[in-house]
Structure formats: structure tokens, C-alpha cells
């Protein structure tokens, strides 16, 4: 899918950014899709990890991908900024509940009770 032309007119980080942006905009990479790690993608493409990281930072700045800490980088959800932030807050909440050993249905019930107050 991704190919970098070392003799291409644009820099490798820009080629990667453009190809990933195109795959996201066409739906080839759907929202929520986990991207390979920077190191893995760098190895697969024969690039320096900093080159891939630079592409990821540009894509994140453009709102096309989001980094979720140790979970990795994902294709960003579509929608307005408030909607995206709300989805991220929900993911963060569920991750914390899992860490506490709280099942998803119980976590949802806590939210319903809090909203009812």
C-alpha cells in the first residue's frame, strides 16, 4: 500500500503523510483503525523512525490521526471537535474502568446515575 520513492520530488516524510492522508480521506483507512507503530512502519518502508514520527505529527496536527499514549496511533474519528473530544473522553473513561476491573455495563450505569443527579 505505502511506497516511498527516495528520488521523488517531495521528502519521504511528506510522501508518507500524503499517502496516509489520501487513504484516510477515501475511507481506505477507516476511523478508529490502528496504525502501525512508528518503528514498525519505519522498518517496513526503510525510513528513519524520526521521518515516520514527523509524518504522524503532521497528520495529528491536521486532525487526521490521534495518538492515544501507549495504545498507539489511530485514524481520527470524523465529526466536529466537541464530538471527537467526547468520544475520546468516553474511551478514556472505559479504559480507566477496565483498569479498576469494572465491567462496561456497570461503568455505563455509573454514568447514567451521575447524569440523573
TrEMBL record:
<keyword id="KW-0805">Transcription regulation</keyword>
<keyword id="KW-0238">DNA-binding</keyword>
<dbReference type="GO" id="GO:0003700">
    <property type="term" value="F:DNA-binding transcription factor activity"/>
</dbReference>
<dbReference type="GO" id="GO:0003677">
    <property type="term" value="F:DNA binding"/>
</dbReference>
<dbReference type="InterPro" id="IPR000524">
    <property type="entry name" value="Tscrpt_reg_HTH_GntR"/>
</dbReference>
<dbReference type="InterPro" id="IPR036390">
    <property type="entry name" value="WH_DNA-bd_sf"/>
</dbReference>
<feature type="domain" description="HTH gntR-type">
    <location>
        <begin position="10"/>
        <end position="78"/>
    </location>
</feature>
<dbReference type="InterPro" id="IPR036388">
    <property type="entry name" value="WH-like_DNA-bd_sf"/>
</dbReference>
<dbReference type="Pfam" id="PF00392">
    <property type="entry name" value="GntR"/>
</dbReference>
<protein>
    <submittedName>
        <fullName>GntR family transcriptional regulator</fullName>
    </submittedName>
</protein>
<keyword id="KW-0804">Transcription</keyword>
Amino acid at each position: 500500500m505505502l511506497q516511498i520513492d527516495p528520488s521523488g520530488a517531495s521528502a519521504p516524510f511528506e510522501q508518507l503523510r500524503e499517502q496516509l492522508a489520501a487513504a484516510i480521506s477515501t475511507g481506505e483507512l477507516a476511523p478508529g483503525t490502528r496504525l502501525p507503530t512508528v518503528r514498525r512502519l519505519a522498518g517496513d518502508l526503510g525510513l528513519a523512525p524520526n521521518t515516520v514520527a514527523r509524518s504522524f505529527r503532521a497528520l495529528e496536527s491536521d486532525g487526521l490521526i490521534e495518538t492515544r499514549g501507549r495504545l498507539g496511533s489511530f485514524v481520527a474519528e470524523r465529526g466536529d471537535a466537541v464530538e471527537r473530544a467526547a468520544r475520546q473522553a468516553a474511551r478514556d473513561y472505559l479504559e480507566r474502568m477496565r483498569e479498576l476491573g469494572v465491567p462496561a455495563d456497570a461503568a455505563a450505569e455509573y454514568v447514567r446515575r451521575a447524569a440523573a443527579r
